[in-house]
Specification:
This protein is an all-alpha fold and 205 residues long. The chain has a single domain, classed as Up-down Bundle (Four Helix Bundle (Hemerythrin (Met), subunit A)), CATH 1.20.120. Helices cover 77% and strands 2% of the residues. The chain is built from nine helices and two strands, in the order αααααβααβαα. A two-stranded antiparallel ribbon has the order 1-2. α3 packs antiparallel against α8, α4 runs antiparallel to α5 and α5 runs parallel beside α7.
């Protein structure tokens, strides 16, 4: 099968991301808390595949494969987690899922430095952190709407590279064992989201 000749080491990590995302969805049905472990591991796999891709030769299918994997781990899983936590969030979870998919599809046809709109992984971190921290319906509903809009916005976000990635990576690992570290994970995501938005607001003043 010639397809395997196209798969690089980075692509293998991307597939691992997808499998971990699928595991998170499957476990969410029977062991909701454990499902977040698979989600965090998917985040780490996603970060590693980007790092490996930057150090090795990129494959022709890498970009498309990455978006397909992200749609499972960072679009479907957060939406499912919202519904499981509060079935009344179904409409907001559907909105989040739809806009996540739109954001990923647009990413595949753009050729820009960094990102246009919030990356789905960041949005997923915010939603899952709020769920684990047992935030009320109103907070999750408002957050999902804001994140959905920002994901398809034209606001430019930087691509995080190098040693800086280690900081959220540590928070992700610790969040597997201690739910309290979700506060730091959430704070990191919010700072990333707000920084370019503040810049755009200042330019318009």
């Amino acid at each position: 099968m010639k397809i395997f000749r196209e798969v690089s080491l980075a692509d293998s990590l991307t597939v691992l991301n997808a499998l971990l995302g699928f595991s998170a969805i499957a476990y969410a049905i029977h062991d909701f808390e454990k499902s977040f472990t698979f989600f965090y591991l998917a985040l780490l796999a996603d970060g590693l595949d980007g790092w490996v891709a930057s150090k090795t030769e990129k494959s022709r299918i890498g970009k498309e494969l990455d978006s397909l994997a992200d749609s499972i781990s960072f679009a479907v899983f957060p939406a499912v987690a919202m519904i499981i936590s509060k079935i009344s969030l179904f409409a907001f979870a559907s909105l989040f899922l739809a806009f996540s998919i739109l954001r990923l599809a647009r990413f595949n046809i753009l050729n820009v430095e960094g990102f246009l709109g919030i990356p789905t992984s960041i949005s997923a971190i915010v939603i899952t952190s709020l769920i684990r921290l047992q935030q009320p319906f109103e907070v999750l509903a408002i957050a999902s709407v804001i994140l959905s809009i920002l994901m398809v916005s034209d606001i430019k976000y930087p691509r995080i590279r190098g040693v800086i990635l280690a900081i959220p990576g540590v928070f992700i690992l610790l969040s597997i064992f201690y739910v309290e570290f979700c506060y730091l994970l959430l704070l990191s995501a919010i700072l990333y989201i707000v920084y370019p938005v503040v810049g755009v607001w200042r330019e318009r003043k």
